[in-house]
Each structure stands twice: as structure tokens, then as C-alpha cells.
């Protein structure tokens, strides 16, 4: 067994943890922004699939991963327009609309994929790696962490920027106010509808990016139901993280670890039942829910439509 | 007054509408009822063996883009139809839900013989065959499942193909480590895995055989397949034997990204899925065509349901795909092993679980 734990094995293991965590991280950050503004998006699974499919099709057509990621973000925004119009503007039930978006996303991407890509190869290949000078040569950590694609680094910078923005800027304060006490934001001269609208669109872009990352970089292809419940895990992580994006990042990495560890244990010689391997990420999420359930705090106005002047 | 007259007319009109709709419904029900009667008439003919099959259908859970099981079934059905000069209807992407309904609808559509191309269909197929009296070929079942005139099974001997792949892998590896990845707890794949390990050890017992699984039913989990294959490669395996339907996409991504690694596919031809086809060492091809052709002939002869239809080395249903990586030395060794399997001097172990595969690996050919 010990002879299996080579530098190459550990390198791939760490890289796998990161590549599995990134789509979840992007989606959960998107959900966090929406929830902080008071909009509960249960349609995240469907939005991720739409982002994944859009990114996949555009990358397959153009051969450019960057354009594919951008298309994934646009796909996410378009998918979230339903949430924007029906939830934010018309004040309809956020749970019902969210579930409808999930079902639509799952259905439409499956149908389109099966209609268009059943008889042709759908491999996207690998995106070129960007080695960071100096750091990329560190044993194990270098190739696994510092030789990622440029898209990875842009996503990390984006997430860190949003973490800063949500915690330390006027935009972040307005967003959080829209979820905490929208009437106060209104009274202070802020525009609740506009704040929530921006948050929903930004959330859609990030969730779509998460889906595109999953299809383009993590898997390098698309298949129906590719997300496999990832969107719902993102909702759980968001609720447990209490709006703190750094906590979202850490819990996403724990999920990535849970996904990577099953096959790794088998390869190094443990006979682990396949059921346990597949259940492991979900078991960990359930355990986290149980352990941290008391500390799960959601914005008071989450899921509540805002009507100016209403009591 | 006018209002009363108007209301009375509306009431009369409503009664007429209700009677008309009721009549239409009654006629529809009668039509449906006679439709079922018609079906049973068809099936009686079919099960008595007096009808020559002119049209059959194959129902598969996924489509031919899986480079594997579904591709093999669909290709074989088309091949059998061409060979026999009859019509075939392919029903791909049927999934696993409500399969009895799907099979009933296919039977209602005029299929005189149906291939239910997944072992997960077996229960539903038995019900559909009984209800519609249409012969159905199920998968991976024993002779005890046969029902004369209605049900018989195609049974791949995966351990034989796996053994041949193991011989090829052992002669190709330079790192002395080879790996297997499965996407599901599937009886055929367990059998192929145990055969593969024994094939490897028959050439060189010092070669290390690694094993990993994506999930209990992760047939289409491309992301999970990629993770598992990457870790096999990182462990030093330079030949990877991949077993999985849609998960194969993930295997191929990992193989494409790795240097110096050869891939052994199972069931179908994965060449179109690799950006560098030279990475394909071979594929354990499953050819269902002989089984389908024989089954249809048996339906015509009225003896369907009395035997199981093997997909094995002996009848050409299981063989290794020719590639440029299959050197003369490997080809000769594989041919020798094939002869041994056909004459019975080589009998690969049929594992039925991951634990049994692990036991075969641990035994190292002893």
C-alpha cells in the first residue's frame, strides 16, 4: 500500500480535490450572493446544467475554453431571468419557481444533448495549464496547485473579489441589507428591487460558471444530469456558511476531498464498497448539516418578496 | 323571461355535449379494448411459432454514443436486421424507469420480437412478454429464466474476453502495473475483471493489478470516471482497462491527458472518442449479432425460450479489436489463449462481486 503513495499519486489526488471543488465553490458563491440579497434559488441545479451545456456547446463549436466559460455565465444569467422576473419582480413563490427551474434545466439540457450529440464524439480535450514561475516547480504542491489552467486562477480571483465586495463595500452592504431588512434599505434610499435584481443576475452568472467549469475543466465533456445533485449540495453549503464566502471555499474543498478519497482508497488497496464511495460526499454533507445545524443562519427576509410600503 | 329561455337552451346544449362526449369516450374505450384483443391475437401466433419475424425492436437504456454496451447492442441489431433482411426499430435512451410500459408500447407498435438490452429490464420484460405474448430476449440471466416461446437470455461470457485483454495488457505494460476501472456493480464487469487479472498473471504474475470503481450504478458518470482513471494512472498503471457506458467519456479524458498510457476498452469501439487513437491498445468487443440472429431464427422455428444465447469467444461474440498496438507477439499470445478457452484448457474465474475480484487479484494466479 505504502508504495502506492507516490508523489505522482498525491499530486493527482490534490488536483482532483481542487477540480471537484471548483464547480461547487462557484455555484455556492453564486447562491450565497442571491441568498444574502433575500432570494432563495432552489433552481441552482437546473441553472448549473444550463451553464454546463451552453459552455460545452460553445467550446465544442469555437474550440476556445474562455469563450465557453463566458457562454456558461451568460447561460446562467439567462436561466436566472426566470427567477428575476417571477420571484423578484412579480413576487411569486420562490420555492415553487426554483424547483421549476431545476426541472426545466434538467429536461432541456438532456433533450438537447440527446438530440444533437448522440452519435458524435463529445470530447473537449484538456485546457492548457498555466505554470506559475517558481511555485509551479515545488514538488507535489507545484504541479497540483500551481499548474492549473488560467480559468482556475480567474475564478479564484473572482471569488476572492466577491468575498471582499460582499463584506467590505457599499454594494455588499446593500446586498446584505436587502436580505436582512429590505425596508431599512428602502428607507435609507437604496433600491431593493434593483439590488436584488443585480444579485440574482450575478448569482446566475456564477452558478452558470460553476456548471461550465464542471463540463469544460472537471469532466471535459457533457452528459445528461452531469451535475448529479451538486446544485443541492451548493444550497446546503451556502446555508451552513452563513454568508461567509471563505467558509464556502473551505467546505467546497471538503466536498472535493470526499469525492477524491473513495477511488484513491480503492487504488491503494482498500476494498471499499462502491456504494460507500458514491455516498461519501453526501454522508459528509449530512454530517455537516447535523453538526453545524444550530449555526445555520439565513437572512431574515430570505424567500420573502419585497413590496414597497407593505406591512 | 328571455333569460330563462336562454338558460334552458344552454342546459339542453350542455346535455347534448355531455352525451356526445360520453359516446366518444365509450367508443374510444371499445377501440382500446379491441386493440388489446388484437394484440393477443398477434401474440398467440407469435408464441406458437408459426409467424416469421419480419420486424423486431431493440430497447436500450442509453444510446450508441457510449462507445460500449449500448453501441454494441444497437450495432448488432442493425447487423442482424441486415443479415436476415428484416426491419428493426431501435429505441435508445429508454432509461430504467417504467420499462414494462415501454416494452408494452413497443410490442403494440408491431414488433414481433424484442431485445430488452439491459439486465435491469429483465423483470419488466418478463411481465411484458407474458402480457403481450411477444418473445423477448433478456440479458445475463441463466437458463432457469427461460420461458418457452416468450423469454430467453443473451449471456456474455465476460471472463473470457477479460482474460484475453489481460494477456494483451501484461505483454504491453512497461511499468508492471495495470489498472481496471468499473462504473458499476455489474455482473459482466466483475466477470471481465477476474478474467483480466488471471490473464495478466498467466503471462507475468509479478505485474501489479489495480482495481477501482466509480460507483454502484454510475454507468453514465463521466466526471467520476475521470477521477478514478486519473488516480489509477497516477499510481503507475500504464495500461488501463475501462468498463463503463457513459462513464467511458471520463476514462477517455484521463487517458487523453496522460502520456505513455494505453487504454483497453470494453464492448464497443472507442477510437472516435480518443484525440490520439494510438493510445488504444485494444477493445474487448462484444458482438451480439450471432446471438440475435440465432434467437430470431429460433422464434421463427418455434423453439425460442428453450436455450440461452452465449456471447463468447467460441462463437465470435467476444474478441479483441485489432489495432496497431497489437503487435505480432501480443496477437499470437491472444490467439493461443483463445484456443485454450475454446478447448476448455483455460477456464477463467467468474467473479460476481468486488470482493471476489479482489480475491482473484490477491491470489496472483496461484
Features:
heterodimer, A: 311 residues, mainly alpha, ABC transporter involved in vitamin B12 uptake, BtuC, two-stranded antiparallel sheet, 12 helices, globular, B: 366 residues, alpha/beta, Rossmann fold, 2 domains, 6-stranded parallel sheet, 49% helix
Description:
The complex is a heterodimer of chains A (311) and B (366). Chain A has 311 residues and is mainly alpha-helical. Chain A has a single domain (2-121, 141-295), classed as ABC transporter involved in vitamin B12 uptake, BtuC, CATH 1.10.3470. Chain A contains twelve helices and two strands. The longest helix of chain A has 30 residues, at 7-36. Chain A is globular. The termini of chain A are far apart. With 366 residues, chain B is an alpha/beta fold. Chain B folds into two domains: 16-157 and 288-311, 3-Layer(aba) Sandwich (Rossmann fold); 158-286 and 319-363, Rossmann fold (3-Layer(aba) Sandwich). Helix content of chain B is 49%, strand content 16%. Chain B is built from eleven helices and twelve strands. Chain B has helices spanning 2-48, 69-84, 99-108, 122-132, 158-172, 187-203, 222-234, 248-257, 289-301, 328-343, 354-363; strands at 55-59, 87-91, 113-116, 136-139, 151-156, 177-182, 208-213, 239-243, 262-267, 280-286, 309-311, 318-320. In chain B, the strands form two sheets. Chain B has a six-stranded parallel beta sheet, sandwiched between helices. In chain B, strands 7-6-8-9-10-12 form a six-stranded mixed beta sheet, sandwiched between helices. In chain B, β1, α2 (69-84) and β2 form a beta-alpha-beta unit. Chain B is globular and about 55 Å long. Mean pLDDT of chain B is 85; it is low at 1-10 and 24-49. The chains are: A mainly alpha (311), B alpha/beta (366). At the A-B interface, α1, α9, α11 and α12 of A face β7, α7, α8 and α11 of B.
Amino acid at each position: 500500500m505504502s508504495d502506492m503513495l507516490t508523489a505522482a499519486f498525491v499530486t493527482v489526488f490534490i488536483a482532483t480535490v481542487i477540480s471537484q471543488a471548483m464547480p461547487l465553490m462557484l455555484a455556492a458563491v453564486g447562491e450565497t450572493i442571491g441568498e444574502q440579497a433575500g432570494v432563495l434559488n432552489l433552481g441552482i441545479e437546473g441553472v448549473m446544467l444550463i451553464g454546463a451545456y451552453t459552455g460545452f456547446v460553445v467550446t465544442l463549436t469555437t474550440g476556445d475554453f474562455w469563450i465557453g466559460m463566458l457562454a456558461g455565465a451568460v447561460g446562467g444569467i439567462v436561466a436566472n431571468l426566470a427567477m428575476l422576473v417571477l420571484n423578484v419582480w412579480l413576487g411569486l413563490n420562490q420555492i415553487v419557481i426554483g424547483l421549476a427551474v431545476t426541472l426545466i434545466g434538467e429536461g432541456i439540457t438532456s433533450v438537447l444533448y440527446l438530440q444533437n450529440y448522440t452519435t458524435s464524439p463529445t470530447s473537449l480535450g484538456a485546457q492548457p495549464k498555466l505554470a506559475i514561475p517558481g511555485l509551479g516547480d515545488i514538488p507535489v504542491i507545484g504541479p497540483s496547485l500551481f499548474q492549473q489552467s488560467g480559468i482556475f486562477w480567474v475564478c479564484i480571483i473572482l471569488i476572492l473579489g466577491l468575498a471582499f465586495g460582499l463584506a467590505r463595500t457599499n454594494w455588499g452592504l446593500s446586498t446584505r441589507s436587502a436580505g436582512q431588512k429590505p425596508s431599512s434599505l428602502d428607507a435609507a434610499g437604496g433600491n431593493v428591487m434593483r439590488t436584488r435584481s443585480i444579485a440574482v443576475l450575478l448569482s446566475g452568472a456564477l452558478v452558470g460558471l460553476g456548471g461550465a467549469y464542471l463540463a469544460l475543466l472537471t469532466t471535459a465533456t457533457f452528459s445528461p444530469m452531469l451535475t448529479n445533485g451538486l446544485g443541492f449540495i451548493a444550497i446546503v453549503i451556502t446555508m451552513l456558511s452563513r454568508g461567509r464566502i471563505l467558509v464556502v471555499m473551505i467546505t467546497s474543498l471538503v466536498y472535493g476531498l470526499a469525492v477524491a478519497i473513495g477511488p484513491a482508497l480503492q487504488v491503494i488497496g482498500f476494498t471499499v464498497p462502491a456504494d460507500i464511495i458514491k455516498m461519501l460526499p453526501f454522508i459528509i454533507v449530512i454530517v455537516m448539516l447535523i453538526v453545524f445545524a444550530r449555526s445555520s443562519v439565513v437572512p431574515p427576509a430570505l424567500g420573502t418578496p419585497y413590496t414597497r410600503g407593505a406591512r | 323571461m328571455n333569460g330563462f329561455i336562454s338558460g334552458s337552451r344552454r342546459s339542453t346544449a350542455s346535455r347534448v355535449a355531455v352525451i356526445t362526449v360520453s359516446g366518444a369516450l365509450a367508443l374510444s374505450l371499445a377501440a382500446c379494448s379491441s386493440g388489446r384483443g388484437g394484440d393477443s391475437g398477434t401474440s398467440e401466433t407469435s408464441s406458437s411459432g408459426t409467424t416469421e419475424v419480419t420486424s423486431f425492436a431493440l430497447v436500450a437504456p442509453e444510446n450508441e454514443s457510449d462507445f460500449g454496451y449500448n453501441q454494441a447492442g444497437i450495432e448488432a441489431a442493425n447487423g442482424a436486421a441486415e443479415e436476415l433482411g428484416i426491419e428493426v426499430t431501435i429505441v435508445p435512451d429508454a432509461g430504467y424507469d417504467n420499462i414494462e410500459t415501454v416494452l408494452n408500447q413497443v410490442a403494440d407498435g408491431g414488433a414481433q420480437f424484442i431485445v430488452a438490452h439491459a439486465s435491469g429490464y429483465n423483470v419488466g420484460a418478463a411481465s411484458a412478454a407474458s402480457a403481450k405474448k411477444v418473445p423477448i430476449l433478456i440479458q445475463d440471466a441463466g437458463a432457469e429464466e427461460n420461458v418457452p416461446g416468450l423469454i430467453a437470455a443473451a449471456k456474455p461470457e465476460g471472463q473470457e474476453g477479460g482474460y484475453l485483454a489481460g494477456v494483451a495488457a501484461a505483454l504491453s505494460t512497461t511499468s508492471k502495473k495495470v489498472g481496471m476501472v468499473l462504473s458499476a456493480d455489474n455482473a459482466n464487469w466483475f466477470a471481465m475483471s477476474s478474467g483480466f487479472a488471471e490473464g495478466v498473471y498467466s503471462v507475468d504474475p509479478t505485474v501489479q493489478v489495480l482495481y477501482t470503481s466509480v460507483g454502484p450504478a454510475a454507468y453514465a458518470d463521466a466526471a467520476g470516471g475521470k477521477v478514478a482513471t486519473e488516480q489509477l494512472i497516477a499510481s503507475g498503471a500504464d495500461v488501463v482497462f475501462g468498463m463503463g457506458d457513459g462513464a467511458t467519456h471520463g476514462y477517455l479524458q484521463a487517458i487523453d491527458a496522460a502520456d505513455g498510457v494505453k487504454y483497453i476498452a470494453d464492448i464497443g469501439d472507442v477510437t472516435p472518442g480518443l484525440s490520439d487513437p494510438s493510445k488504444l491498445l485494444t477493445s474487448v468487443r462484444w458482438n451480439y449479432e450471432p446471438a440475435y440472429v440465432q434467437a430470431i431464427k429460433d422464434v421463427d422455428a418455434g423453439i425460442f425460450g428453450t436455450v440461452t444465447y452465449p456471447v463468447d469467444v467460441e462463437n465470435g461474440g467476444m474478441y479483441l479489436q485489432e489495432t496497431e498496438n497489437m503487435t505480432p507477439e501480443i496477437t499470437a499470445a491472444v490467439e493461443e489463449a483463445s484456443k485454450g478457452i475454446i478447448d476448455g484448457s483455460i477456464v477463467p474465474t467468474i467473479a460476481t462481486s468486488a470482493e471476489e475480484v479482489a480475491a482473484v487479484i490477491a491470489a496472483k494466479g496461484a
